[in-house]
Write a structure and sequence with these properties.
single chain
Length: 434
């Protein structure tokens, strides 16, 4: 890739913004998905606050509140990827949005009664549905925008998500203290129903490519296994998934530890907790602004993946030692910026290196592995914090995130990485036959 194509020129900015005018389908997806991100952030802030209040800030219970939301995703993200390859992706997304909206309404009863079992069960269900949605969403977005506009669309989606996460988490704390959890969960449900409506009105510009003959001969579970087999044929995909998995073993602690930090140093103030979570939105916006300045191409994207892990892990080490609220918010914003930079480089590279007919499965497998380990990490680090304290637990988690970056850099320096031909995914034998 030439240096001129790497820099973000005014023409590229106009081309990104032209997506709104040229692609009404993308515009509707952006609107629906960002509104549902707003509702989902309200939900997560409400659940964690309710658990903290009901348990007196217990680390294990707080870890479970985050961990259970993600623990079911190994299976359901993978199955969601299979559904994305087998059925019409738009219909899959609409059905999942409707189910998410109904689940959000059920949270009202668990929240009013402060029932921890009810909150945990619904959290698992919400996580499973969200996993399938997350696996299908980027693949359908690529169908709508086309390969040449996908990176730009992904960046604009992240800007929207960043704004909604900032508002959702920030407003979540205030709304909880003013109107209560029932209104918060109702707003969450409405956001998913609105997202379903927006997605239903779209059509993809590029027809979905499916291996119909082979899919009719195999069951869903065998199709899911096909994705794992495909990883063995693509070292870069395998190492990307492993890097993401290692990072998640440390990254899963983030929301748990900042929740416990708020409980310890800021008297479990719901507004402060909302501000902490709102820094994810600031980080998303910061990453969307920084990412184009770092350039495109395999080498640059690969380096971003490694350095993002190292920077995020290092910043997380410092967090529990800061008791000055403005500085805490700055460090959190920088840390989340590194996390979102990772995603903006990682996801396009993952899909670009994967055969079209298997993109749903690979996206689902990757999301499932990373999010399930992320959930396990949340519960484990919550328990560790009860014994070792926040400072030592943050040191452990930050160290793991840094190791993930070093693991990826080691792969980039190995002979296997030299054989990669970016942009030309190798088809799995099963796909070629069909």
């Amino acid at each position: 890739m030439s240096s001129s194509s790497v820099q973000r020129s005014p023409e590229n900015r106009k081309r990104e913004l032209s997506l709104f005018k040229e692609m009404p389908a993308f515009r509707r997806l952006l609107t629906g998905w960002t509104i549902s991100a707003l509702g989902d952030s309200l939900n997560q802030a409400a659940v964690i606050f309710l658990v903290l209040s009901a348990t007196g800030g217990e680390g294990l219970q707080t870890g479970l509140a985050v961990g259970l939301r993600l623990s079911s995703r190994l299976i359901f993200a993978g199955l969601g990827g299979v559904l994305a390859d087998r059925f019409e992706r738009r219909n899959v997304l609409v059905l999942l949005d409707l189910c998410l909206g109904i689940t959000a309404l059920l949270f009202i009863f668990a929240g009013i009664t402060r029932s921890l079992p009810g909150l945990y069960i619904l959290t698992i269900l919400m996580g499973a549905l969200s996993a399938a949605h997350a696996a299908t969403r980027p693949v359908y977005l690529r169908d709508v925008t086309g390969a040449d506009r996908f990176d730009q669309a992904l960046a604009l989606i992240q800007v929207g998500f960043g704004l909604m996460l900032f508002l959702g988490y920030g407003l979540g704390g205030a709304l909880l203290s003013i109107v209560g959890c029932a209104i918060v969960f109702t707003l969450d449900a409405l956001s998913f129903f609105f997202s379903a409506l927006c997605t239903w009105t779209t059509r993809s510009a590029q027809p979905q490519k499916r291996s119909v003959d082979s899919m009719t001969k195999r069951g869903v579970f065998r199709e899911w296994l096909l994705g794992w087999q495909y990883l063995k044929t693509k070292p870069v995909l395998l190492y990307m998934v492993l890097t993401n998995a290692i990072w998640s073993l440390g990254g899963g602690s983030v929301f748990v530890l900042i929740s416990l930090l708020n409980y310890r140093d800021f008297n479990n103030n719901p507004i402060t907790l909302g501000l902490f979570f709102a820094m994810t939105g600031v980080g998303a916006l910061g990453a969307a602004w920084i990412r184009p300045k770092l350039g495109r191409g395999f080498t640059r994207e690969a380096r971003i993946i490694g350095w993002a892990c190292v920077i995020e892990g290092t910043l997380f080490l410092l967090l529990p030692h800061i008791q000055f609220l403005p500085l805490t918010l700055v460090v959190l914003a920088a840390q989340f910026s590194a996390a979102f930079l990772f995603g903006l480089a990682y996801q396009p590279l993952l899909l670009r290196t994967t055969e079209s007919a298997l993109r749903g499965r690979i996206s689902g497998l990757d999301s499932g592995v990373y999010l399930s380990l992320y959930g396990l990490s949340a519960a484990v680090h919550g328990s560790i914090a009860e014994v070792l304290g926040l400072e030592k637990t943050a040191c452990l988690a930050g160290g793991i995130m840094t190791i993930a970056g070093l693991f990826w850099f080691r792969f980039l320096g190995s002979p296997k990485s030299k054989r990669i031909t970016p942009g030309k995914p190798a088809a799995h034998p099963d796909i070629r036959k069909s």
